[in-house]
Amino acid sequence: MDRFDAIEAFIAVAESRGFAPAARKLRLSTSAITRHVAALEERLGVRLLNRTTRAVSLTDAGLRFLQRGQRILADLEEAEQMAESERGEPLGRLVVSAPQVFGRLHVAPLICEFMIRHPKITAELMLADRMTHLVEDGIDVAVRIGHLTDSSEIARRVGAVRRVLVASPAYLAGKGTPATPEELAAHRLISFTALTAADHWRFWRDGEQTTVAVHPSYVTNSADAAIWHARQNGGLTMALSYQVADDLREGRLRLVMADHEPEPYPVQIVYPSSRLLSLKVRAFLELAIATRNWSFLTFGGKGEGSLPKAVSLA
After folding, report:
1. Please, are residues 165 and 237 in contact by the beta-carbon 8 Å criterion?
2. What is the spatial distance between Cα 186 and Cα 155, in angstroms, rounded to a whole number?
3. Strand 153-161 relative to strand 265-272: parallel, antiparallel, unpaired?
4. Spatial distance between the Cα atoms of 201 and 159, rounded to a whole number of angstroms
5. Is the pTM for the entire model greater than 0.85?
């Protein structure tokens, strides 16, 4: 039995809370993970995991060994990274996570450029509007929009986006342009549920929040679908500024009630604090910062809008 493989399998089971998710994370079969953990327990002469048909939990001995095992693998990774840095060339597999639209428009081209510059890198891009778990899902680095709540992640702020209300010029010409949240009751609304609730929307004025009840004519969990419907004169929808930047610049959509927007949301590149910053992740961060501007705060052209408040980017 390879001791490091067994320790890695045990840690994956403990962090993922199951043999099947650990197998997916390590790209092994469930039976192989089970054999590794059983062999480790036999070698140590102690049970590390309590197993039931529904859940896996750590024993007291397992909790103590988990902490030591994580340090062992961290030391091994550090030693490998030191050797890797001497070659000065990023290599291996890089897993990146990002929101659906932002990832398609901005992260995918960045990964392509990164792989051209570093041909020994293989990459996987995971696009999801839900919050992914970096360690459990085996993600090296993620692009996140919004404020972070997980203290186990290290973040580098690289930009900011606005949450905007938009509609097509033709729709506004026919229905009028609302100036206050209360006036939305007379309009057709499109709800993108990953950003807004389907039955109420929140707005801000001079730092004070207000909530209004809404009755959308169209509800979808797809930003692309909501924005497309707005372009077809379907009504007003909320979106993040990067999602509609081109539409605003080209005049296909217009900003509405910009003075009722919340503070801009930060765009951040994050990675697990439990992992050392590998050469491949460091190189990816450097490329992202040096070659990309991920601040979507103003728009040129017909859809020009100004920030409701000044923003300082770190």
Report:
1. yes
2. 42
3. antiparallel
4. 25
5. no
Residue with tokens 């839900």: 130
The mean pLDDT values, 10 residues at a time, for the chain of 314 residues are: 83 88 89 90 88 83 86 73 65 89 92 95 88 77 83 82 96 95 95 89 88 94 94 96 93 95 91 74 91 82 43 30
Task: List the Cα angle 186/188/192 in 5-degree steps.
Answer: 130
How many other CB atoms are found less than 10 A from the CB of residue 145? 19
33-45 confidence digits (pLDDT tens): 999 999 988 888 8
Q: How many CB atoms lie within 10 A of CB 78?
A: 12
Write down the residue that tokens 């490091």 correspond to: 4
| Residue owning tokens 């949450």 | 163
Residue-wise DSSP of 38-106: HHHHHHHTS--EEE-SS-EEE-HHHHHHHHHHHHHHHHHHHHHHHHHHHHT---EEEEEEE-HHHIIII
Q: What angle do CA 151, 153, 155 make, to 5 degrees?
A: 110
Those residues with Cβ within 8 angstroms of residue 47's Cβ, 6 or more apart along the chain or in another chain: 41, 59, 61, 62
- Domains in the chain, ordered, with CATH? 3-86 (1.10.10.10), 90-160+265-296 (3.40.190.10), 163-263 (3.40.190.10)
Continuous H helices in the chain: 3-16, 19-26, 30-44, 60-87, 100-102, 108-117, 169-175, 223-231, 241-250, 279-291
